Amino acid sequence: MSDFIINYNSPNVCNSKLNLTYDSINNSENTYLQTIFYKTIPFLDNESVSYTAEYNYNNYDIFCLNCNLSGMFCKLGFNFEYLSMQISDKMYLCIILKNPDGIVIMSPTLRATLQSEVDFVCKNLYHMCLLFDPSENYNLQYPKEWIYNIFCNIQISEKYKPSFVNNKLYLSLDERLDYKELYSNAFDELLNLFIEYYSNGVICTTPQFATDFNLTHYFNDLYISNWKNTQITNDISNFLLQLSYSKNIHLNIIPDSFNKHYIAKKYTTAIFDYSTVLLYIPDYNYLIQFTDYINDFYNLTHTYSLYTFKVQSNLKVYKYYEYLNLEYPEIELVSYNCNDSLYPYTLSLCVYTDNYDFSKVIQSLKNL
User: Fold this and answer.
1) Position 194 pLDDT exceeds 90
2) What pLDDT, on the 0 to 100 scale, is given for residue 137?
3) How far is CA 160 from CA 10, 92, 154, 157, 173, in A?
4) Whole-number mean pLDDT of the chain?
5) CB of 320 within 8 A of CB of 362?
């Protein structure tokens, strides 16, 4: 086996190569990390018989090592190279870390931490290559929390011999085949599953939540939505995931004062932002009732006069309610919460006629 350089495209690999002739390194222990891989040292015996070097690793082992270590080194801002170093009676494959300034001289603490990681990879992930780590940044369009949510339930083809270790997906590929192409195909398959699951509203949740929100069991702990409603959301998977965490959820609405008045008239606990309303949604039926209520509003032709103003305290809201109900019974009065720390309440006055003059009413309220 001759010295060689590994070159391949992988979403997990930073600039790495096997370069066994690298010379510019001192013998300080803090400049390298040792793997379990080695080659024996060629020699001549007493009878002048030549023994060539024997390796305990091959190209596939280095491929796995690259996949499993590069993410960790990239997070630290390091590239890495391999160097064959004589340790005892063998030439061990060691890892040299580099940054733009050159070889990294590690602190004893950092070296101990990284060496522990290298030992774990070599001993526990032997012949396994990391395909996907949900903590890494792959520039995917999906929320990371959704990927974390579904990840350990995802299923790719058994021909890749997939397995999960510490919430990461590994493959055990056949080194006799074109494992680089298999690896690339497996990653494409995984991305296609993400596309399929996300577009169809697949999440990992409980059977009770699935019953409450009209989801069907998919496989393992995954459930798929039986419904899509663009009026509720254009992002069904993320919507369901957020709803599974908390049934208090923001729904998009038209940012119109009368729309808010109409919603608050029935949903008295609603909290409004500019273009969303925060509601407690106990189940799917409640969600549909809300959208039907909104649709009724959109489909009606309304003639109205509206006046809104912000109020600092709940006590003032009650005072205004008492006064207006007594003095101006023709006014439909609604109050609702909004995300404003100084003026958390909005008082909404509505009369179902054109051009109602609120000036006298407002002046009366100011004099209270």
Assistant:
1) yes
2) 81
3) 16, 30, 14, 6, 6
4) 87
5) no
If one counts every other C-beta atom within 10 angstroms of the C-beta of residue 121, the result is 20
Q: Which long-range contacts (CB under 8 A, 24 or more apart) does 56-63 make?
A: 57/93, 58/1, 58/175, 59/4, 59/6, 59/175, 60/127, 60/173, 60/175, 60/179, 61/37, 61/126, 61/127, 62/6, 62/18, 62/37, 63/6, 63/8, 63/129, 63/179, 63/180, 63/183
Q: What is the DSSP string of 232-297?
A: T-S-HHHHHHHHHH-SEEEEE----HHHHHHHHHH-TT-EE-SSEEEEE--SHHHHHHHHHHHHHH
Please, which residues bridge with residue 91 across strands? 39, 86
* pLDDT higher than threshold 70 for residue 226: yes
pLDDT, average across residues 92-103: 91
Nearest to 217 by CA among 229, 238, 203: 203
- pLDDT, residue 6, reads 32
Tell me the sheet residues that pair with 167.
none
Domain residue extents for the chain: 16-127, 305-366
pTM: 0.78
Give whichever of 88-92, 137-141, 169-173, 307-311 has the largest mean pLDDT.
169-173
